[in-house]
Each structure stands twice: as structure tokens, then as C-alpha cells.
Amino acid sequence: MGYDFVVSGRIWSKGNFLDGEIAVKDGIIQEVKPHINFIHKIDFGNKVILPAGIDMHVHFREPGMTYKETIESGSISAIYGGLSTYVDMPNNVPPTSSIDAIQDKLSIMEKHSYADYGVYAFIGGKGVVKKLSVYVDAFKIYLAPSTGNIVLNNPEDLKEISIELADSKKFCVVHAEDSASFGPFKEHTLEGYSAYRSCQSEKVAIEKILSLYSDSFHIAHVSCPSNADLLKGKSFEVTPHHLLLNYNMPLGTFGKVNPPLRSEHDRDLLMEKFVNNEIPILASDHAPHSLEDKDVPFDKAPSGIPGVETTYPLFVNLAKKSKVPLEVLINALCINPARKFGINGGLIEKSKEASFAVFDLHQAKTIKGKHLHGKSEWSPFEGFEAIFPTDVFIRGIHVIKNGFVNANHSGKRISKI
Prior knowledge:
Number of helices: 12
């Protein structure tokens, strides 16, 4: 049978490793077997081949804040992190909240994205979903201000928005913090910031969404284990920073993020829930700022940290050390995000998109922000151990080969594949 190529290695397929081979033609997996009779093979030996990751929560800052990140730099960083696909949030300058703004962003993505991509639109009030649903992949609501200071104008509109979403067959990601529940900002530290934007403020916002009895909402970056309990059976995500960092770490402004880092106790309980497969999606919430932006007094510093390139590598390393089940990681970063967006990927199986990442489990590296490929040149995970992919394929195209990017590759929009 005619294939474009065959790869061999230790393949993660159907919940187990198979020492075998993957046959690819026209960007689609044709066979996954112990042996495939074909001359042109790419042999990865004992390296592991995992589904490429899908990050449904990034802020690539273009247009408007390109000194922090661009579609090009962010997407290159994503594929160096083993991802095939990202979905970009709408808090740009101007916000992605009109047909013109959406089309402008999609034009940039079409020209400059190395990874496959999707786009969110911002919902500021009623009527937006009806107007924009045919142009975007999903929506975003902010119930409290973050970078860009764009928020839902009137929370009383949520019920009608939920009806509009159901009619559109699109879903909406919610930044769930209730600003009316914020405490006084007394202590300008990470712990003080956590007290200011507390677990209670997150709880109030989540309960507001749950009271709508709608399946059209997805809760972003849940930071508190007690709030994850509220969301059993619902669609929600956690971030690497809420699973791995806490407010007692000496990060200063470089750990300032919305919602804030929590205590070591809360972090540990949240990680326990992730390990036990109680959290459906892992997303980076990659929100980069320049070193200069962050190197200011705490109360003046913007919130947000980079993470798109380090998410998969950090957790592959944890899986290697048996601290996170690999099956849980693949569910949260590959399978469930693919299902969420109707992407024919997230699995290494026949008829699926041939998007996968190759990891040498014997080549763990220490994260150094200056060696990453985004524009921020720092990482809150500085000094953490991670395993980065040596090779990445997107739809059958070898986009990272022996650590080098294929400059001729272009990503595609997820709804067009």
C-alpha cells in the first residue's frame, strides 16, 4: 500500500505503549501496527511517540502588544513544546470583539502561524454570539478584569447569553472571578494577592455560572481544589502554574497571575485531583509579559506568565517519574481538548490526524527562560526539569526535526482542516 512515510518507536496508542510503527498518507494515520512493510521509515528507536498537545488557552498578544509576543513567536514556542494546535484569547488591542478584528487576527494567523490555530471572540454583552458565532471557534467572558481590562458589562445578561450560545452550538470560556468579592489588597506579595483575589471570589463566580444550568460554559484556570469539586462532571481546566507553583515560592512579580497562585496545601490538593483524573483539561494560560514589564513594584506589575512551551515537557517529565499517569496527561492535553473543538486528533489511531511529538525520556533538561522560543525570555519554571520533544509532526508534516523548525510550514485554522 502506498504511504508517504512510516515512523517507528515506542508509540502511545489506546492507553498503552506499543513498540511499533505508524503509517501516514496525506496527513492522516493509515495504520498503527508492530510492523509495516514499507521502505521509507523514520526510525526513532526507543524514543516515545505521543499525540501532539492542544492548548486551548493562550494569549499571543497580537495585534497590539507584539513586544510581548507575536503569533509567529508564540506558535513556534508552542511546537517546540510538542503542541500541534492552540486557541488564542481575545484580549488584544483592540479586543477580538468585532468582525473586522476577528478577520484581522485570522489574517495574521494565516500568514505567520506555524501551529494550527483557533480564535475566540470576547462577549461584552447580549447579541454578540448571534453576530459573531460564524466567524469564531468559541467565545470568552471575563467576570473580573485581567490584562486588557475587558469585562462582561452586565452579569445579568448571562442567562440570555447562555441561550444564544446553545443556539449557536458554540461554547464560552469563562474567567471565573467575582470582582465584587475581592478583599482589600493590603499586602503586596503573592500571598497577599491570593488573599485579595481569593478562592471565595472564584467560588462566587463559578456558582453564578452553575446557576444557569447550561452546558455551554467552560471554566478557565480553576485555582482552588474546593472549586474543582464544584465542577465535577463539568467542563473546566487547570494550569501548570496552579498545579506546580505556590505563593511561598520566591517568584515576586514573576509569579503574579490571575487567578493568583495559592498555598502549597491547595496546590497539593489540586495536583492530587489532576493525578486522579478528576480534571478534564490542562491548558497553559500562556500570558507573556516582557522582563521590563514585570520588573516593577508588585502592585504595578501586570498579571500573567508564559507557559505554552513548557506545559507538555514539564508533565512528560512528571510522567516519566511516575508522579502523573501518562494516560491522565494525554486525556487532559490531547484527547479532551480535541473533542472540545471537534479536532480529528489527540490520539494515535487509524484515521486520525498524523500529529504527534517524539520524546527521548533520557534527555531531561533544566528549563532556562532565555533558551525558550517566546519573546518574554523568562519562565516561572526556571530550574524545573522537563523533557522537550526532539521531533514534532503536524498533519504528517515534520515541523520540528532534530530540534530545528521547518521554516516552510504553515499552520491551518482548526475549522478548515
